[in-house]
Amino acid sequence: MTVGSDSGERRALVLSLIATAVLGTGAVLWGILSGASVILFDGIYMLAGIVLVGVSLLAARAASTAPTPEFPFGRHGATPLAVGLQGAALLATLVYGAADAVSVILNGGSGAAAGSVVAYGVVSAVASGLVIVVLHRPARVSQLARAELVSWRAGALLSLMVAVGGLVAVVLDRRGSAAAASYVDPILVLIASASIAPMAIALLRQGIRELMEAAPAGELNEVIAAAATDAAVEYGLSKPIVRATRLGRRLYVEVDFLVRQGDWRVEDEDRVRRFIVDRLDSTDHEVWANVELSTDPTLIED
Predict the structure, then answer these.
(1) 289 lies in the same domain as 205
(2) Which of 4, 41, 107, 245 is the most buried (most CB within 10 A)?
């Protein structure tokens, strides 16, 4: 990732921080004044995100620092750690919201004004949509911005559910079913929690996988395999043994080839390594590649 993309990542995180603070504070006040637990839940969900954005900013700063004797490979582990924390905190917020909703149901429902719930849902969904549009581009190359994008998508989904549920409550109330309408608010919280939970679990899983040095998933893994295979074809090498993992913006790649003794020199190995690194530059990662040409199969076997 280039310096420009680092700057774009920080701008995206600062924007998310400001938007979260403004919308979260407004939602909490709106929820308290209207008595709508779903709005209050949304506000708490967003305000909790302020701490997480702050963690992401610290992680971005740590990951961009140069290696030191104490951290010879840099601090790129801060990125998946921040992503995992974001997922864990989001899950905790959902558990809190669901527990509160069950309590409201057991106590006879909510007396929130349905019209106020609808208005909030529309305003919040539009605001979240604007933030999503701005975050879309930096999220393509930044895992931290991507985590924020997922969080805002979850918030937009929750807001849409709030608006739809508010409309249902309005209809029920006008048809003389005020008792049923009082349960719409807490039921919305339960539905929203169940809908957002997969996003939170995905973030948590991503962070844990990277910290455990799992192989990159999806298209990135295919690009790495293709680069190694192309190098084998280009230089007439054997089938490569490829090991790779991603840690934040850092992409670690090890490619081993079995060769005959006396056929290859150090500069030949350098050319193979450069070929693979050049192919991986398009992934927008900082590539740390190690290419080994060995005559001993026991040194490169899986």
Answers:
(1) no
(2) 41
Whether residue 20 sits in one domain with residue 125: yes
- 229-261 burial, b at 16+ Cβ within 10 Å, e below that, comes to eebbeebebeebbbebbbbbbbbbbbbbbbbee
What type of residue is 286?
E
* 3-state DSSP helix/strand/coil % of the chain, to nearest 5: 70, 10, 20
CA 177 to chain centre: 41
Q: Verify that 72 and 134 share a domain, yes or no.
A: yes
Strands 250-258 and 241-247: antiparallel
Which among 114, 122, 120 has a CA at the least distance from the CA of 171?
Answer: 114
**Radius of gyration of the chain, Cα coordinates, nearest whole angstrom:** 25
End-of-domain residue from the set 211, 244, 279: 211
In terms of DSSP H, where are the helices of 65-183?
A: 78-106, 114-136, 143-174, 178-181
pTM of the model: 0.70
295: DSSP letter: S
Choice among 42-56, 141-155, 244-258, 280-294 with the minimum mean pLDDT:
42-56
- Give tens-digit pLDDT for 258-283: 988 888 888 888 999 999 999 998 88
Identify the DSSP state of 284. -
Q: Does one domain contain both 38 and 124?
A: yes
Asked if 147 and 199 touch (Cβ cutoff 8 Å), the reply is no
- Among residues 258, 246, 243, 251, the alpha carbon closest in space to that of 292 is found at 258
Q: Are residues 89 and 57 in the same domain?
A: yes
Q: Which residues pair with 242 in a beta bridge?
A: 255
Q: What DSSP string describes 35-72?
A: T-HHHHHHHHHHHHHHHHHHHHHHHHHHHHSPP-SSST
